[in-house]
Amino acid sequence: MNNSTEIYALVKLLDDPDPEIFEHVEKRLVEHGNEVIEYLENVWETAPDATLQQRIENVVHQIQFNTVREDLNLWYQSGAFDLLKGALIVNRYQFPDLDEQKIINQIEEIKREIWLNLQYEMSSIEKVKLINHIFYNVYGFRGNTTNHTDPQNSYLNQVLESKKGNQISLALIYSTLAQKLDIPIYGVNLPQHFILGYLDESKREEHDFGVLFYINAFNKGAIFGKHDVDQFLRQLQLEPLPGFYAPCSNVEIIRRIIRNLISSYENLGATEKVAELKELQNILNNTDL
Question: Which of 5, 16, 54, 230 makes a 20 to 30 Å CA pair with 131?
Answer without folding.
Answer: 230
